[in-house]
Write a structure and sequence with these properties.
By secondary structure, the chain is an alpha/beta fold. Helix content is 32%, strand content 16%. The chain has two domains: 112 residues, 3-Layer(aba) Sandwich (Rossmann fold), CATH 3.40.50.720; 179 residues, Rossmann fold, CATH 3.40.50.720. The chain has ten helices and twelve strands. The strands form two sheets. A seven-stranded parallel beta sheet has the order 8-7-6-9-10-11-12. Strands 2-1-3-4-5 form a five-stranded parallel beta sheet, covered by helices on one side.
Amino acid sequence: MGQPVIYLNEQMKTGQVETIRQSAPDYIVIDATRESPQVIEDDIEIMLGWDKNLGQRLLNSETSHLKWVQSISAGVDTYDLDRFSEKGILLSNASGIHSISITEHVLGVLLAEFRGIRTSINNQANKEWTRETISYKQLSMQKMLIVGTGHIGQQLASFAKGLGIQTYGVNTSGHVTNGFIECYSHTNMSRIVNEMDIVVNILPLTEDTYQMYNERMFLAMKRGTVFVNVGRGPSVNTNDLIHALNTEQLRFAALDVFEEEPLPSDSPLWDMDNVLITPHISGLTPEFKTKLLKIFSQNLTQFLKDGTLAKNEITLHQGY
């Protein structure tokens, strides 16, 4: 093996790349976004960002020295976690970076619906001054079930509390988490979801969360529930969601992620008055690269010290 390589598949500022070089003087640091690197692939030990084609070659190589991948997203469902586990490759995510952005997005779409702002935008486009078409409710004192009580869920619960929203949580075991009135396990979710006015999905995609929002779950909800999905699209059965909206089992859905992205132009969701579609933007974060580098740098320091990671390590068999 030649000199080990840190392979950057996410474009960083020149100064940020230099910081990485100074932190790891024994490594060759390659910025693959700015140059066509002449690199011996098996020498890549660390990757920031995931090059799908290169990554697959490394996973299939018997002589690869890949030891750690830093994902740029919180979700890691696109990675071959079984293969990572087989080869003993560490994986860390960007959890925590998107907390404020996704929280603001969720509260923004809820306020737009509850205060009639969506309808007013449409009326403005038609130069219509009317109150008759505007329905409104008070967001304060609504019961919100946040499904996923990690960094993002806790941030959302904190901000929602400031608006007077009553926040409840769902996590794997039902363990108590700061900021929530009460938490429930996944297995008990269908029993308590009918008490909630708003359900927000923030879960990662795993075998357990795939298609968990299906006809059975929607029917378990209170009639007229508001549903927000900023987690993963495949957690929702789209046909069952459309049926729940058409029958008004769900009053409104704000959807930022979908089973198929981009959302096909012939999807019925585009034409539904009780749906707000955003193109997977809830996690867009100002100064994202700076925040990502902070996580990567902490992990790099720890990795160079003893081969472990300081934060955000994925438990591969759980998928998060």
